[in-house]
Design goal:
By secondary structure, the protein is α/β, with parallel strands linked by helices. About 50% of the residues lie in helices and about 15% in strands. The protein is built from 18 helices and 13 strands. One of its GO terms (cellular component) is periplasmic space.
Length: about 425
C-alpha cells in the first residue's frame, strides 16, 4: 500500500514539474512574441501613398519582429482639432505629422514632444547629416531638433509658354522684381490676364508678401522680427515689401473677382489657359490638370517655371526659398523603436521610392534622383541648393499671427490698407501672442 502511495506521489510530482515546465515555456514564448507598438498618426488621403507607407512599415516589421507599426489616420481639420488633446492623453500617438513652424514650437514648449537632438547627432551626426541642412534647421528651435524631416516644397512662378509667346515675353529675362512688374504690364497690354489669383482663401496672396520680405530684408530681418528683436515687423525692409506688393496690386494683375476666388478655382483658371502666370506649389503641374475644366489642363511642355525674382538692392538671395517643410514629430513617451523606425522611413532609399511615386520632394541627401517630373525636378534642384529655406510665414508665426499676415497681404494687395498699417497690425498681433 505504501509502495502504491509512493508511486502515486512520485507521479504527481512529475506531473507538477511537467506543468511548470510547460508554463515556463509558454511564458518564454510569450516574451519572445511580445511586441512594442508604435502608433503612427498621419493625415494622408491618397490611397496610393498610404499603400507605399504600409509596405515600408511591413518591411521594417519583417526585420524587427518585436515591433508592431500601427498606422492611424485623422482628416486634416480633425487632426488639427484633436491633436492637442491627444498629446496630453494616454492615447498619444508616438509619431505624428507636422508642418513645423509655430505650432511645432508651441508643442515643444508644452513638453509634449521628445527632444530629438541627441538621437540625430549620435554617431558623428550621421543621421542629422543625412538630410538637407535647411530642412533640419527649419525644424530646430533654440538649438534643439523637434522633428525628423520628411519633405520640402517651394513656391515659384509657373507660366503658360504659349501666352508668353503671344505677349512677346522671354521668361529667362525675369531676374528682378522690376522685370516681373514689366512682364505683368506687357501681358496685360496683350489682352491676357497676367496672374491667376486665389484671394478668396487669402493664404495664396501671402506668398507675394512673404517672398518680398525675404528678398528685401534677408534672413536676418525676418529672424529678428519673429524673435521680437530690433524693429520687429516694423523694420523698413518689411514696410518696403508691403509697398512693392501694393505696387503690384495697383496694376490689377489678377482676374476680375479674384478676392472671391478659391485656390482650386485659380488653378483651374491657369489650367484652362485663362491666365498667363500662377504663383504656386511644386506640384502645380498636376494640380492645374486636376482643376481644369476639361480635366486635362495645360500640356506639361506648355508650362514653364521661374524662381521668385530678387529685389534690386535687397539683402535676400535668389537661392532663398519659401515653401513647405513637413516632418514627423515624436511624442515625449514614445518608445525607442519609434525613433528607429523614423530613421528607416526617411532614409534615402525610402525617400527615393516616395519621390518616384510623385509623393514628395525628398529631404534625404542622394534621393533627389527619384523625382521624375521635369517641373518638380526643377523645384527639387532649387531646394537642393537653397541658402535659406523658410517655412510659410502663416505656419512659422503660429495660427494667431498667421491669420493676421494673410489678412494683411490681401488688404495691401487690394489697396485697402497701407503697408505701414499692415506691418503695425502684424506687430500688434505678435506682441499680443507673446502675452
Amino acid at each position: 500500500m505504501n509502495r502504491i502511495m509512493s508511486i502515486a506521489l512520485k507521479g504527481e510530482r512529475i506531473a507538477v514539474r511537467a506543468a511548470a515546465a510547460g508554463l515556463a515555456m509558454m511564458l518564454c514564448t510569450a516574451a519572445a512574441n511580445a511586441q512594442t507598438v508604435v502608433k503612427w498618426l498621419h493625415l494622408e488621403t491618397d490611397p496610393r501613398y498610404v499603400a507605399i507607407w504600409n509596405d515600408i512599415a511591413k518591411k521594417y516589421e519583417a526585420d524587427h519582429p518585436n515591433v508592431d507599426i500601427q498606422m492611424q489616420f485623422l482628416e486634416n481639420e480633425a487632426f488639427k482639432a484633436k491633436l492637442p488633446t491627444l498629446l496630453q492623453s494616454p492615447d498619444a500617438p508616438h509619431i505624428f505629422y507636422t508642418w513645423g513652424g509655430g505650432v511645432l514650437k508651441q508643442q515643444a514648449e508644452t513638453g509634449s514632444l521628445m527632444d530629438l537632438t541627441a538621437a540625430m547627432k549620435a554617431k558623428d551626426n550621421t543621421w542629422e547629416k543625412s538630410y538637407n541642412p535647411a530642412a533640419v534647421q527649419g525644424l530646430t528651435f533654440n538649438d534643439k531638433i523637434w522633428a525628423v524631416p520628411m519633405k520640402m516644397g517651394t513656391v515659384s512662378f509657373f507660366y503658360n509658354k504659349n501666352l508668353f509667346t503671344k505677349a512677346g515675353i522671354d521668361a529667362t529675362g525675369i531676374k528682378t522684381w522690376n522685370n516681373f512688374l514689366d512682364t505683368v504690364k506687357k501681358i496685360k497690354a496683350a489682352g491676357i490676364v497676367p496672374i491667376a489669383g486665389g484671394g478668396g482663401e487669402k493664404w495664396p496672396l501671402h506668398f507675394y508678401w512673404s517672398y518680398l520680405v525675404m528678398r528685401d530684408g534677408g534672413k536676418s530681418v525676418f529672424t529678428a522680427a519673429k524673435n521680437g528683436e530690433g524693429n520687429g515687423f516694423l523694420d523698413p525692409a518689411i514696410i518696403k515689401a508691403g509697398d512693392q506688393l501694393a505696387e503690384l496690386g495697383a496694376l490689377e494683375p489678377f482676374q476680375p473677382g479674384y478676392l472671391g476666388t478659391t485656390w482650386p478655382q485659380a488653378l483651374g483658371l491657369f489650367g484652362d489657359g485663362k491666365a498667363a502666370i500662377i504663383l504656386g506649389f511644386e506640384n502645380t503641374d498636376a494640380n492645374q490638370r486636376n482643376n481644369a475644366g476639361d480635366g486635362k489642363g495645360l500640356a506639361p511642355e506648355n508650362i514653364g517655371r521661374f524662381a521668385f525674382p530678387v529685389v534690386e538692392g535687397g539683402a535676400g538671395a535668389a537661392t532663398d526659398t519659401l515653401g513647405g517643410l513637413n516632418g514627423w514629430a515624436v511624442s515625449k513617451d514614445a518608445p525607442p523603436e519609434a525613433i528607429d523606425f523614423l530613421a528607416y522611413l526617411t532614409n534615402a532609399d525610402n525617400e527615393r521610392l516616395m519621390a518616384k511615386a510623385g509623393m514628395l520632394i525628398p529631404v534625404a541627401i542622394g534621393a533627389e534622383d527619384g523625382v521624375v517630373n521635369p517641373l518638380v525636378h526643377e523645384s527639387a534642384q532649387q531646394l537642393a541648393t537653397s541658402t535659406w529655406h523658410q517655412n510659410f510665414f502663416d505656419q512659422e508665426l503660429g495660427p494667431s499671427v498667421g491669420r493676421v499676415v494673410n489678412d494683411v497681404a490681401v488688404e495691401i494687395t487690394s489697396g485697402q490698407m497701407k503697408s505701414q498699417e499692415g506691418a503695425q497690425m502684424i506687430q500688434d498681433a505678435f506682441e499680443l501672442e507673446k502675452f
